Amino acid sequence: MSTSPPPVPTAASDDAGSSCCSKGCSAAQPAAAATSTPAQEGALQRFRIPTMDCAVEENEIRRALEPVPGIRAIRFQLTERTLGLRAEPAALAAALTAIRNAGFQPERLDTPEGDAASTGASMPPAAPRVPLRLVAALLLALLAEGLHLAAPEADGLAAIRLAGMALAAIAVWLSGVETYTKGWAALRRGRLNISALMSVAVTGAFAIGEWPEAAMVMALYAVAELIEARAADRARNAIQGLLALAPGEAMMNQADGSWRAMPTGEVPIGAFVRIRPGERVPLDGVVTAGRSAVDQSPVTGESLPVDKASGDSLFAGTINQNGELECRVTAAAADSTLSRIIHAVEEAQATRAPTQRVVDRFSAVYTPAVFVMALLVAALGPWVAGIGSGQAVYKALVLLVVACPCALVISTPVTIVSALAAAARRGILVKGGSFLESARTLRVMALDKTGTVTAGTPTLVEWQVLRGGRERDDVARLAASLAGRSDHPVSQAIARGLTAAPSPVESFTAHAGRGVEGSIGAERFVLGNHRFMEERRQCGPDLEAALAVHEAQGRTVTLLADAQGPLALFAVADTIKPGSRAAVAELRALGVTAVMLSGDNTATARSVAREAGIEQVRGELLPQDKLDALRDLRARFGPTGMAGDGINDAPALAQADIGFAMGAAGTDTAMEAAAVVIMNDDLRRLPEMIRLSHRTHALLWQNIAVAVGIKAVFMVLALAGAATMWMAVFADMGATLIVVANGLRLLKPRTGSS
């Protein structure tokens, strides 16, 4: 079993992030992405930006940095709210000034690149909002509303009204200082976002004398932001929470033979660590001593513990069940499989899914269009509808609040992030939201045979005594004795499959390509293939017929013989994985046709395919042949996936619409070429991925329909004069919370599906 963790996209990706937006925000405008290369000089300086909550705000920072010369690289980690900059010293200072002018406050992180940046373990917690400030703002807004009702204009109670206005102004400042900072920064640059819309709406309401409503709208908006942030962070934390699974210390073997607890970050590759029963595995490694069952569900999604013995791989964060294990560390803490999963999902979040790109393009037009509409309502309302100018301005302000596209923009990223997290929990590592969304369109799934449909290791599936005169147990002892002395995979399979205790073998001889022979007691025996028996002239019609039956099923046959002739026949085959047949049936139920593409001989491929329930088989294929077959399948049937694990599968995995690499046993080349890595090699993850894709697509469009539908209804009410600013902000808050909660449903496990 391979101990190499799955390769992931480079962490220096500068694509616009697509993590969920915990603040209302407008459309993501296209931004030029700074790129980085390994050859660039200078350390990456890392900064935390507490109020960078969504992809739009990330793009605002990008645009602010575009005019600054001397910036070599930009790296965003939206899930951690961090920004990495590689720049000349003068350019770095100018960049920080530009970020502050855009309304954001960067905080320098001392962690060097590649340390906590790689593991996320040292990331400071998100800057908390101050609930007391929001509570105070709400109370002051309510008090201002009370004073407004207690001192109507006709009473001439100017002092009370002035006190109410002052309380409203304080409430707006307490709850809206961040909104105003970012809103005016956006307006200065000629851009519109939710902060700009809210700033204009609240200021306008104050100007026309609706100061109690302005205060309440800003306070409620701040509360909505807080609720949205907490809800959206659930999706982020579903991935980041995996980091907490790996313990911070490991019991490492010292030079004097003693064991001492060491921070995992200080344990070198090649060191030996000990894991007691009940403890979590601190680092990736290979078992060198001990035997135990290990719960691998945090990494591979397997529901049942997996038995581990010497030579088996261990993943950081998995749980040792019932026996003490010692292992040799194969990867540093920052490069563990768990950390790579986190990074891969973060990079996947940086790739916009198709639906999200559609939403972004729509919002890019929608936001300015609504702003223009509000201006027209304010300017033309008295002329067209015959209403007062104050009433027209109020309608326009209500329209601005209703039109805030927060729910629309947040609807896609929160759903995608939740789906990526749900997939990772099931041991499905998806390298991009686009693959997650498009998996539902697959019509054909091409499957490699060895290591994908089958276990990839030969197994003794049947054996029979061919000649009387010896007890069955005695024959098994003779075969086990010879097979145990050979290092050939077929002989090893026979040795594993026989429970008889071996006897000493003398004068042991191996015949390359034929078999082995040796003396057991006073007799000479051979264990060899069909060719070896023919050379010894020990084949007859009955034996040939028996061999033909097994060979037609794709089995490798080995014969035990003495001087008189064959004693027993042993059939070895690469058996299918336990879940392969169920996976093929589930794919068929989803409308996906399974096709086997194998480099093995056609007879063997057909035998395995028949057992797995696969109807279409192509055997004896070279890597180029698999590529050609994949193109043919796509041309005939439509979008085609490919699942494989070997180097020879890599070209087809890269060519497929979606490539699925069998991660635990697959080669690094295959996993690099694939779009999806199945961590536990279980083919049943393929239909799970397709089902998850269907659910994700359905929730995406449900969210879009809810967001657009609620906005449309309240825009009509606003134009008709039947909606107030209170109603508008509650509509915006409600729509946002509905789409966030709907998207987070993907994090809830479902029985029998993803």
Question: Can you walk through the features of this model?
Answer:
- The protein has 754 residues and is of the alpha+beta class.
- The protein folds into four domains: 131-239 and 345-406 and 696-747, no CATH class; 248-335, Calcium-transporting ATPase, cytoplasmic transduction domain A; 420-454 and 577-693, Rossmann fold (3-Layer(aba) Sandwich); 455-576, Calcium-transporting ATPase, cytoplasmic domain N, CATH 3.40.1110.10.
- Helices cover 48% and strands 18% of the residues.
- The protein is built from 25 helices and 26 strands.
- The strands form five sheets. The protein has a seven-stranded mixed beta sheet with strand order 14-26-25-24-15-22-23, with helices on both faces. A six-stranded antiparallel beta sheet has the order 6-5-7-13-8-11, with no helix packed on it. A six-stranded antiparallel beta sheet has the order 16-21-20-19-18-17, sandwiched between helices.
- The protein is elongated.
Poorly predicted sequence stretches spanning 5 or more consecutive residues = 1-41, 112-129
Report how far the terminal alpha carbons are from each other. 26 Å
Query: Nearest-angstrom radius of gyration?
Result: 33 Å
Mean pLDDT: 78
Number of domains: 4
Shape assignment: elongated
Q: Which structural class do the helices and strands define?
A: alpha+beta
Major β-sheet, in short?
A: 7 strands, mixed
Instruction: Tell me the number of helical segments per DSSP (H or I, 4 or more residues long).
Output: 25
Tell me roughly what share of residues is in helical segments: 40-55%
Write out the strand line-up for the largest beta sheet, numbering strands in chain order: 14-26-25-24-15-22-23
Task: Bin the strand percentage.
Answer: 15-25%
Total number of strands: 26
